[in-house]
Design goal:
158 residues, alpha+beta
Length: 158
């Protein structure tokens, strides 16, 4: 597993909360894109990001919380906000990053390998922050096998 360690600064993104199985977060992304298009934000969108707060091996799937987010080229004006859209802060700190190329459905084994294989053998411990995925291309215009996702796992040195 090819992991790199990065120190990230805090980043504010804009998102919609999803409660339910993580593989259904696409519903929140669909709603988020409709809002972004209605607000004319497509050209300001840098990437999409999913933030995952709960461990689906521990929490029941219907109770898992996640945020479907967009990173924009700057802050939103107050009039562009809606009751659905919330600023989401991705806290700065130390992260283990894995670059995945392939379909989103193949991401679950990445988490298993990271937590069961890489992390126990590394010089790091899991930090008490959510992991997140940065989607670097568009699934509507990119073949599934060519999708690029960066997965960020929060860590602290042992």
């Amino acid at each position: 597993m090819n992991i790199t360690i990065e120190t990230r600064t805090t980043l504010t993104v804009y998102g919609i909360r999803h409660c339910g199985p993580y593989n259904e977060i696409y519903r929140a992304f669909d709603e988020l894109w409709r809002w972004a298009q209605a607000e004319g934000l497509e050209s300001r969108t840098l990437c999409a990001i999913a933030v995952y707060y709960d461990n689906p091996k521990v929490e029941r799937p219907e109770r898992c919380r996640s945020d479907a987010c967009l990173q924009l080229d700057g802050p939103l004006a107050d009039e562009q906000m809606s009751e659905l859209i919330e600023p989401v802060e991705l806290l700065g700190g130390c992260y283990a990053k894995y670059r995945h190329v392939g379909p989103y459905e193949a991401l679950e084994p990445v988490y298993q390998r990271f937590y069961q294989e890489w992390l126990p053998q590394s010089d790091y411990l899991r930090a008490n922050m959510p992991s997140f995925e940065v989607y670097l291309n568009n699934p509507r215009t990119t073949a599934a096998e060519a999708l690029v996702t960066e997965v960020y796992f929060p860590v602290v040195p042992k």
